[in-house]
Amino acid sequence: MRRQQKAWLGADVAQRPWTHAERRVVLRGFFGRLTIAVEPLVVSVFFALLPIGLLLRRQEIALLLAPIFGLASVAFMVYAIVLIWPSARAVRETFAPIYTVDGYIRYRTSPTGEPEYYVAALTTDRQTLAEWPLREWPHSIGERALWPVVVEFSRYGGIHKIDGRPTGVLPTEIAPFGIGIARGEEEHRPSQFG
Question: Are 31 and 177 in contact (CB under 8 A)?
Answer without folding.
Answer: yes
